[in-house]
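Students often ask why we bother predicting the structure of a whole assembly rather than each chain alone. The short answer is interfaces. A chain on its own may look different once its partners are present, and contacts between molecules only exist in the joint model. In this exercise we take two input lines together and write out one structure for the complete complex. Read the inputs first and try to guess which parts will touch.
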Amino acid sequence: NAGVTQTPKFQVLKTGQSMTLQCAQDMNHEYMSWYRQDPGMGLRLIHYSVGAGITDQGEVPNGYNVSRSTTEDFPLRLLSAAPSQTSVYFCASRGQGPSWLPYNEQFFGPGTRLTVL
Amino acid sequence: TQLLEQSPQFLSIQEGENLTVYCNSSSVFSSLQWYRQEPGEGPVLLVTVVTGGEVKKLKRLTFQFGDARKDSSLHITAAQPGDTGLYLCAGAPAAGNKLTFGGGTRVLVKP
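Now the answer. The structure tokens for the assembled complex follow.
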């Protein structure tokens, strides 16, 4: 049971380049989300999904696309990278239903550190 | 938009001292979670508080949810170097799935 895995761990892009951050979970969780973490700003929600084929925007969705074709995978795409997207990106997953239920603990991946030059 | 303010932003103490981290909002949350994050890793859930006035203890860590469910605190007794990390609070709204995170408190416990 690997939990939530993210690749790559580090990435450097030039402005305008595109890339996909990969996220996978093996816990059969319905709910998956992407966050970015910047100094002093905690975690901000980019996009989330409540199940395969269903995605929705979070707090800071501009410049990012997502899709959810399977329960296991939730990739995050940057179509045209900008320096403002330099950040650490975390993928998370949990079971369906209220987040406060004990069996709905949210698990985070180890993160991808992205630098856009 | 629901906002969560954490204070202080940074705390440096000696081993054996006590510390308290605060998480405040003007909004009501249905539940509040506390996470700890170590360098190079993702956050790990410590506790979830659900009922106004609730107090939960996890060894030397005590978590409290305010009566009005707008604020929370984390108190660490006799801190140890292993308590060093970034502590994040996150609030869940009454409806919906989106968590709102505070800005984090970086705690450094020196031996």
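Check your guess against this: The interface with chain A takes residues 1, 4, 6, 9, 30-31, 33, 40-45, 48, 50, 88, 90, 92, 97-99, 101-104 of chain B (CB under 8 Å).
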